[in-house]
Amino acid sequence: MNTIRRDSVKQGAFYRKLIQTHGSPLVAVDGRRVRSQYHDLKQALPGVDLYYAIKSFPQPDLVGWLYNMGAGFDVASSGEIDLVRQLHIPARRTIHTHPIKRDSDIRDALRYGCTTFVVDNADELLKFLPYKNRVGLLLRISFRSSAAVVDLSKKFGCDIAEVPGMLDLARKLGIHFKGLSFHVGSQCTDARRQVEAIAACNAIIRRHHADSDVPISILDIGGGFPVAYDFGHVDIGAYCAPIVHALAELPPYVNVIAEPGRFLSAPSAKCIATVIGKALRQGRYWYYLDDGVYGSFSGQLYDHTRYPLEIFSDDDRRFPSVLAGPTCDSIDLIAEDVYLPPMELGNIVVGHMMGAYTTASATDFNFVKRAKVVPLNATDSVALSAGSNFMADSLTRAYPSIDSTTTLDPFSMKGVKGTKH
After folding, report:
1. Among residues 133, 156, 193, 353, which one has the fewest Cβ atoms lying within 10 Å of its Cβ?
2. What pLDDT band is residue 212 in, cutting at 50, 70 and 90?
3. Which pLDDT value is given to residue 1?
4. Is the dihedral of CA 357, 272, 22, 71 positive or negative?
């Protein structure tokens, strides 16, 4: 169920200003928060190179911000390669992590300059025979976790018992396995399976080193780093502490990388939707928004996620209510059986934590327009915490009366002169 928070009408002024300027529905992506998340994860995983999983939110501004922070990029399709190419991101800052690829996908990546690929079975390994002198491969191993909301080892990854045979086949074919990889699953709430996976890979790496002249020098620990979808906070340092301890047991010649997606992108964006219709049906108030599960809220279906919602009202009354999307399909429901104060046409609903697997999986069903994505705080390097004011810097272009020395309170829209973010 969605967590719902009510704030005063006054506190919604910032968001109303945004949709007055940019229209509704709107997804606002905050550069400050992206940089804050990246910084926090780098601090929590010292010495680990982060490759952003573009699929979670392939938004060009966000990708550019992360590139400027020093991130690499996990690409999994020719379309994602097109994106990083258009942004002039060097190919050496990318890895291709999809375990199953067409020959055209391999050639597209090689033309771009990406030479690190992931495989998880013998048939996939054979695809690289024509390119064996141009690539280095990572072998993906399956480590399933019951603590993950999305089980990514169900579809991909070889069984650990198959690893020696895969390494031996690659040696016979003259194909270089330079590393191992795993992904315990997305939104993983318990790090123990990651620790177990690291220990198992450590044993494989050490055995291989004893039997081979070419050591395994990379361990890709995947993603899965969790975020809070209830207006709460995940202590990522505490979550990663046992992972860091396990990584310390690896041989010194092993470089560690990770593929965070959700942790970097989810907190970066908020969706602002508007009530466009209302009705009383069987004792419940139905409010129809201009965004729904075929749009920015698609992750409620595909990502098994319920986003925290914020409404703005000074009315203390509560009535059984439903928040529905704009399409003709009855499955287009955002929140059912919730108790809300009365809302009117034009009122707004703000969805928080809506960067990951939202606009990325939105559709054009019913030809309902998708939410416009608006980047804010593009150059301000001061990070925002989870509960602090959201997005102000780039509004100077939208509101000429606001200058670069004004600090904005997104709830009151009152500026404080002389304090620069």
Report:
1. 133
2. confident
3. 84
4. negative
What pTM was estimated for this model as a whole? 0.87
DSSP string, 316-336: ---EEEEEE-SSS-TT-EEEE
- Which residue is listed with tokens 């905050």? 30
| 348-to-24, 300, 351 alpha-carbon distances in Å | 9, 19, 10
pLDDT tens digits along 257-276? 999 999 999 999 999 999 99
Assess contact for 333 and 323: CB atoms under 8 A: yes
- Whether the per-residue pLDDT at 409 is higher than 60: the answer is no
Looking at residue 231, what DSSP letter applies? S
Sign of CA dihedral 407, 412, 413, 415: negative
Tell me how far apart the alpha carbons of residues 336 and 119 are, in angstroms, rounded to a whole number. Answer: 42
pLDDT at 386: 33
User: Are 359 and 373 within 8 A, CB to CB?
Assistant: yes
Closest residue by Cα to residue 298 from 57, 128, 121: 57
Q: What tokens appear for 359 in the block?
A: 């606009």
Q: How far apart are CA 68 and CA 182, in angstroms?
A: 27
CA distance 227 to 231: 10
* Cα distance between residue 116 and residue 216, in whole Å: 14
**Distance (Å, whole) CA 257 – CA 236:** 17
240 tagged catalytic: no
